[in-house]
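User: Predict the complex.
Assistant: Input components as received:
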Amino acid sequence: MSTAPDHPDAQEYEALLQFMYMAPVGLVQLDADGAIQMLNPVSAQLLMPLSRDGELINLFDALAPVAPDLRQQCASYAAPQGPICDAIRLYVHADDKSGGPQVMSLSMLKLDADRLMAVLTDVTEQDRRERQLRKTDAWLNAIMTNISDYALVSLDRQGRVESWNESIQRVTGYQAEAIKGQPYARFYPDGATTEAQQLDRLREADENGWTLDEGLRQRADGSEFWGSAMISPLPARADDTAPSPVPRTDDDPAYCMIIRDISDRRDLSENLRKAAYSDHLTGLSNRRAFFEAADLELTRRLKAVRPVALLVIDADHFKAINDRHGHPAGDAVLAHLAQTMRSVCRQVDVLARIGGEEFAVILPSVALDDARVIAERLRAEVVRTPALYEQQTIAYSISIGVAVMDDTLTGFDGLIKRADEALYAAKRRGRNQVAIWQNPAPEQA
Ligand SMILES: Nc1nc2c(ncn2[C@@H]2O[C@H](COP(=O)(O)OP(=O)(O)OP(=O)(O)O)[C@@H](O)[C@H]2O)c(=O)[nH]1
């Protein structure tokens, strides 16, 4: 059929040819026996490794080494037109140098009784990634099913459990329904971490690539074990099929958390840690641990401004207690004071003995009013519950200086100085009381 060049049919045909030529996929038109009638540059390039002597005459012959049934499949397709096969993968050749086979995806369409259309795409890279992912999946599954003391969960941007692996049930006893959407603090004993600390850790993971902490963890039944928890950010989700990266939502997995039961090696490391960081008499943090904790708290405060309060506590007339009851009794009073501090403070607070009969408490995320209440509660509790030593009841009292971090202070030394000034004011005013540091002079609580 001939058509004048400016006839609409001719223009349409011209446009079709242009489309075939420009199409980013391989298009081959063939007759029912496979004889190639037309092929575009992409298909020529894709089929070239299969051509004999650089000639592409019959598609079925060219593809016979990788799709031997194709001729038969097309011949037995009875419908007058329609899809014969959809996106079947053809592994063209395994070339060791290129790191894997060239992979084509082939779809065949029957246009009418005499014409078939083959659509070819190069999916080598996609196939390679899929194989890599399957390998990684198999690896991870092997790790998670064979190592019984690791649990793996993914967290969303807010630190809520987003997905979980059955290993979490083995290590923590939690079922999926009970833990999904919950903050990861569910694995910690009550009061062992605050919301601000959890977000700090996520921020640390973002900045350093990971964050690790060790301590008591809690199982679903409330029992505790010694565990480590490592959190690291997941790489930004890359969706190959999307035209641009898919933006993350708050519910997408953003972090991976690995909890490990390390009860076995806890004793060894705990003994070493205690020797280096604990006060032998009271079991509280020693000076070294106290100042390291203070540094950490201040670094965190730089990233997210929030209150930090400090209590400096001193036993009143302690020399007289020693003189009256003896030095060992004095020791028992100090141990009793430490125990009372533990009973009043939270797990996140840093309780330390920083001198002979001088103690300090860092209260993260606590503002002045609450710090005053805590200090007063501690003072009253010491008076209410005297120490016991060898059947003797030893009544004693404490004085407490309170100060909070503010922007006029550059370091922790300044905060300690203020709390000390408040403590001396409490002593001056008669002891057994709480004094708050206030500019210019500390005032009674
Ligand atoms: N038992 C015992 N006493 C200690 C320890 N460390 C320091 N002390 C004693 O604590 C006493 C502190 O006395 P001072 O600094 O004079 O103060 P204080 O008698 O408590 O009087 P104020 O603080 O002014 O109320 C000293 O007698 C120290 O020997 C310790 O580890 N155990």
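Residues 237-246 have pLDDT under 50 and may be disordered.
Let me know if you want any component modeled separately.
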